[in-house]
Design brief:
heterotrimer, A mainly alpha, B alpha/beta, C mainly alpha, A: mainly alpha, 3 domains, two-stranded antiparallel sheet, 2% strand, C: MetI-like fold, 13 helices, 74% helix
Amino acid sequence: MAQPVSELDYLKMTAWQKFCYKFALFFKTIPIVFLNFFKIKIPSAFKKAGLGFKNIGLNIYYAAKNGDAKTRTSFVIFGFSQLARKQWLRGLLLLAFEVLFILYLSLFGWRYLALFNTLGTKTSGWVVNPDTGIKELVTGDNSLLILLYGLLTIVFMLAFLYAWYQSIKSAYSAQQIVEARHHLPTAKEDLRSFTNEQYHKTLLGVPLLGLTVFTILPIIFMIFVAFTNYDKAHTPPSNLFTWIGFENFVTVLGGGLSNGVSFGLTFGRILLWTVVWAFFATFSNYILGIIVAIMINKKSIRLKKLWRTVLVLTIAVPQFVSLLLMSQMLADSGVINNLLKSWGLIDNAIPFLTDGKLAKVTIIVVNIWVGIPYTMLISTGILMNIPEDLYESAKMDGAGPVKAFFKITLPYMLHVTAPYLITQFIGNLNNFNVIFLLTGGNPALPFGYDTSAGDTDLLITWLYKLISRDNAYGVASVISILMFVLTAVVSLFVYNRSSAVKNEEDFM
Amino acid sequence: MRKKRIVSLLACGVIAAGTTVGLTACSSNDGITVWGSQDEQATLQQMVDLFLEQNSDVTIPIKVGVASAADAVTNLSVDATVGADVYCYVNDQLINLINYTALQPIPEAAVARIKEANTEASVNSAELNGDYYGYPYAADNGYFLYYNKNIMTEEEAGSLEGILEACKKNRKYFIYNMTEAWYVGAFFLGTAEGCVGGTYDVEYEGTVVSSASTNFDQNVPGTEHSIAKVGGDAMVRLNSNKWFISGDDSTVAQYLTGDGTDTMFGACISGTWNASIIQEKLGDGYAATKLPTFHSEVTGEDYQMGSLMGYKHFGVNPHTKHASEAHRLAEFLTSEAMQELRFDKLQTGPSNKNVAKLPKIGESVALSALIKQGDYATPQGVFPDSYWNAMKAFGGNVCGKTPTITLDNLDSNLADFIKAFKE
Amino acid sequence: MAKKFRSKKRAERTANAVIYIILTVISIVWLFPFFYLVLQSLRGEAGASTLYFWPKQWTFDNYIKLFTDTATFNFPRWYGITLIISVVVTVIQTTIVLVTSYALSRLRFRLRKPLMNLMLILGMFPGFMSMTAVYFILKLIGLTQNLGLIGLILVYVASSCMGYYICKGFFDTIPKSLDEAARIDGASRQTVFFKVILPLAKPIIIYTVLTSFMAPWGEYMFASLIANGDYDYFNVAVGLRQMLQRETVQQYFTRFCAASVLISIPITVLFFWLQKYYVQGVTGGSVKG
């Protein structure tokens, strides 16, 4: 099926065949894409990086060689040249950054950086206070803080190097502009460029700073933890932990966590269910949500406001409430079973949440309940944005509503919402709330699997169980890294092949 | 126009942020903070007032904060340095809290005093490697039997078979949570006269488990059948009984209310926290006693059900600025008078020997049942995860309408069950 | 011709009838848990749960006591704090999402694609793994204790730019010709953003407002950590959890349900109120500009 087909043959195919063909073609391209990635993308990235570094080196070299006194002073005092050349804004910013960095490093950062290679040597202990007879805590090194603040210092240092380079580069280019008797941008012009040519810096500066500090840095921290022996026996602050290289990776990948075989088996089983769950949870919500939105948006349907509000009401109740209630209602002795019994529909309670297989179906159905309002909200906005004339002309051509849906609505939706679909999929891979609040991972898995996991556990809820009692952070970090790499590769691959990204420029 | 709206939105934001600053700027942390759960706030405040009244040399302010025992552990696990100076915890968190540097050893003089005043088991539950880390105040983290005495006599309530028979006759239900690890031990643990004889022992090296062992694979004294077999077999048979329901506290509440006019509650295994609702719903039928015996089809004998008993302590955070006052306060909060007050206000089961002997404790139906069950209870130490996981997995697989573990495959599952305890 | 027209109309009417039926069924299914929640909140009998559906005794006590019996559970205070947090978070988060989406959709700069990819994958790292790290970063800035609520808000909004996808997707569908025309007239990129894009972005602004307003109401883990036992700074989720403790759940469950109903009110009202703009913004927007 995946053989290349001539254009003529392709046109002869029925819609279903075309779909299959495209589907097969998609999978055929996967290895090619990966091969390309390793053969072309990576070497070219290295080449680019190499060129970049060479450029940077050359810039610094020329600035040092040809720079005047003002430029050369900028090597030590950031922004000196800019201040001297009346570029107040740039100069002050650079200088302020340098001062800040030096203060940070000398007052705070160096202590943590100095201990970074061992993550601390001094254990905390107890000393009896002779006056009161109470054993008092003598605080030792805190490995966790050393690791975290050490990383922060390193990130700060990289930023410092970048600022240093910027200071030199802009000083030298300013010098060149002055020498060529061109106009040097003033502070006012600098400011104005931030609303136009450099507007992206204005807009993204604060969001990216927040992202770096509160998301990227903690993630880097967790990645580093994977290389330490942070576990129950090495829990800070009363104990130290230290670097152990790839031992945790060997433990997880070699399946040797608690009891080898069952751990690997459990990991595989949970991984499989996680993927199956994410698939069904995402697509059931997506397709049903769009259909509901289309129904509500149909012109002749009245009470639009009412229908939408009804659906949104479910969002309005926090999940920890609604899911708690759901799990109560669906329990063996819950209201739903009792209502069904009293209506004479069933004799024995339906084990909605207590039977492994049925619980999985229940969770997916409950997730539809949770998720459809969101999809409905999004697609309402987008559906209404579809130009009316597209439908008009389709009608003129004699297309019915079903055809219009497949020819206009669905492509448009997929185009706009492909990234949404992917984030939903990823979100579902890591959907902690629904599983944790609804079943808590229950019911139990049969013996032969690792007893820490339940039948409906996703990787993420299982991970939570692993760390919440045993503090097995080192191993847990390895599992999160593996999950992270897996999901990242898949989603980046799909994302960058989705039409929304490919045709970003040319839609409409 | 548009800009105006954005500006006004931003203004709203600034105002709101300002309010937030206003709201937050007033909390100060000099003095001593005590944490207790939400329901005991008023009582705790009363005790603190008494403490200040009786110790006029203590002039620092004492503040009462809200953190249940579980929340306290979570918060202290992240940052013990800003945690409360004095707080309550359940003894199974002892080692974790020591690891978080959240517990300070008790001065020796005080250890002697609490040993004198409280039961041995409750004091021992605060010990690790020779140091004592908590002032015990409650010995009520255990379970026993509640029953409806309108439908069964005390004698019937003494055996599982009697309970189920009475339930069947009156179309009521017996509720016991088979999916919760804590309760599953009832069929295995207990070395007292009449129990099956199961034990679970953990040895610690510092704060690390050095060995965890169970004797479930050994035979019940005087028989040829293992402890695991006798307990497991009884559980499987219980699950198949129509008048048995495996369920948690909300299930208990459901069956208590029944159809709104008549209760469907026959009996349940639960703890003191459910006493007031059971009393309210059962009225004159309210009764409680030790756990029943169960009849083993394997050996043909009757065995007493065991249980786990946990303790609650007040601990002192070593990061406190006022260590000696904090220790005095913790000791005061757990003193005989305060344990009595706590019983009066919250019906907490005391760990103090004298308070436990008070006649009013004997009049408390639930507490006297708990104390009776105490003879068959195993002190709940700091058990590692493997214990809870193994128990939960076994109970979860026995339980349900289509259980994974049945009489046919019981033996092979028991082998796995015992294996799962090994660390 | 007339006949055909009539039959078409009839088909339309049947289609509508079918849709009405489906929507009604959906509404019932969707409302069922909410309806159950309301019933529980009006239940007079104590207990965490009942076997039957309709309460035997009806009462408003659960609602009244939320506001009168504040010694043990200070619901009004928690409610106020959560409302403030939510409003501030909404304003900041919506702003961040809008500017990020605009930059990624309309501006062309170096590292744009890698940045988009990066933001896409960052969300895949389990959040609770890094809670401790986030806490100590906050502590370093001094936003944990006295300024804890500000720290909490900061954590909620810090990474909001990761939620750019939907909004950017929306901006992508606004014709480029509109901003090009404005650019030819001499408008700067900032002017384009404020004068051309934002007026058309109502539906997506409202979507973002709604989603960001809702999040703080259910957040428990970090709020509990920041409040650190200080009863006065609990948000609703942390406070209500106290009602679900083993010792309190039997007595307070119905009150917990009443509180949950009250929590859902501002969000429902907000949606009901914003829906007008939401629909207007889309239908009227893109073509007329």
